[in-house]
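Archive entry: two folds, one per protein. Generate the first.
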Amino acid sequence: MAAQRQMRKTRIVCISDTHGQTPKLPKGDVLIHAGDLTNQGGFEELQKTAAWLEKADFEAKIVVAGNHDITLDAPFFREYGSSRPYPRPQDPDQCRKLFTESKSITYLENEAATIYLTDSQGPYTSFKVFGSPSTPKVSNWAFQYTPSEAPKLWSAIPPDTDIVVTHTPPKGHRDKATKDNRVGCEFLLNALHRVRPILAVCGHIHEARGVECVRWNDFLTSSRNGGLVKDVQGWEDPGAGEGNKKQSLVNLSVKGGRRLGNQGRLTCGGGTACGGQPDVPEILQPVPVLKSTSRPAVDNEARASGGTFEYQGSSGVDDIELREGDVDDIERKETVVINAAFLGPRIDRKTTHMNKPIVVDVDLPTWS
């Protein structure tokens, strides 16, 4: 029988693609920003955003850059930055220090960190997070990669990662652009199938903002028929609609009634508490990745009703009784994909609307 461990509800606020905006954020334990902090990555833009993030009242703040944050990609900026209309010369090293030297921001570039929430009034939980600013190459933007570079990039996600934060969405999941094509990364989808994190938070495609729960095929089934995804649940935003004051909530906690088929890492090791930057970020070596070029099993822009998830196929979920506190380890079967784009789609270079941050309640293991 698997060892039992303490689980506590942890509130994670997800946002992406703020592009220089500094919206009011709902309360939570952890803040995740999935990139495009600015429009062009100028120092003043970044300084404004960094100050907003540092003032935000969260125990942990996980931040990745995006393709618009040009000066944070120093090699790219030094080669192409002169073509951008900055009002004054930019120093990428100074721009990066706004985040890499912050005492309250955990800034990740293709690396992982283990976060320990230490506030005596908080949940006292722990999780491992991997963050990447990278997106598939389109035009000439920062932090981009070619198809030949993708396998090595995404194979660096550790197998015990609980939360994956990427600017790009995975192929077929919250990646449907206005022109009705899916522009996410299939190599990232392969990596998510291999790792099966609890959450995969992304942005980049403004019009694909939303949430869905992916139930994975097991590795044997995937190797036989090439299909990574068993089925998908859609989500209806309870905070949608003009004048609606409700939060855009995704309740994955046991008390919330939606049992997630994924309890994260099987063990929780000790370590130094992480406040802001991890003492020694884990720069990870690539590990083998399951290769597949298959498309997801269903159309993943599925609709749902009632503000909860609804399966678009058979779930095969075992009937397991869980309660908050002591929870048996559960095999990683599901990942909730969240595109948290704050700005809506742009038409004629104008933003159509702004979205609420997406709030996630999820049970995570205590670390002490």
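Generate the second and append.
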Amino acid sequence: MSEQKTRKEEHMTNQEQETIPQEEKETATTGQAATHEAGTEATDGKQKKEHQKHKKEKPSEKIVELEEALEGMKDKHLRLQAEFDNFRKRTLREKADLIKSGGESVLTAILPIVDDFERALVSMQEMADEDPSKVGFLLIYNKFRDFLKNNNVREIEAAGQLFDVDRHFAVTTIPSPTEELKGKIIDVIEKGYTLNDKVIRFAKVVIGE
């Protein structure tokens, strides 16, 4: 009986020895799991911080992008405005040139009519000033003259002036009757006119030599 008891104790001891490593193994496994879990939590915490940092940085990057886009739109707007201003100025200038050139041709066409009235009035010098024909001619002639004046058309001074190639056209030269008239205009064959200081018809003159 004592031998059976001894065997029983040995059997229990063997079971305990087998149980201890198993418990140690379970403890080790539990420790590893805890370590892994702690590591996972640390990694998750690090990723969470990085994500939060990224979220904080992202709005700043977005603001920079929006500011750059806004600057680009401002620059584009300024260029478009400058182009529009240039287009408007060019259009106004072309319109003014068109009106000016069109008006110049009309005014130039009137000049021969004024010449005819002046020649007619010369032939009427012996007529009485109260003569209806003379009065009518003078009335129409003065209206033409006023029309030209109101449109900045001016007669070029010629008689007695020094010859100016930019304003006068020499038809011929004749011996000067006096010394002081040499190189000057003795006679005007056809009057010259300017429009806004631009010569639209040269004065045809005779020069003394």
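Annotation attached to the second fold: The chain has a mean pLDDT of 77. Strands lie at 153-155, 168-174, 185-190, 193-195, 198-201, 203-208.
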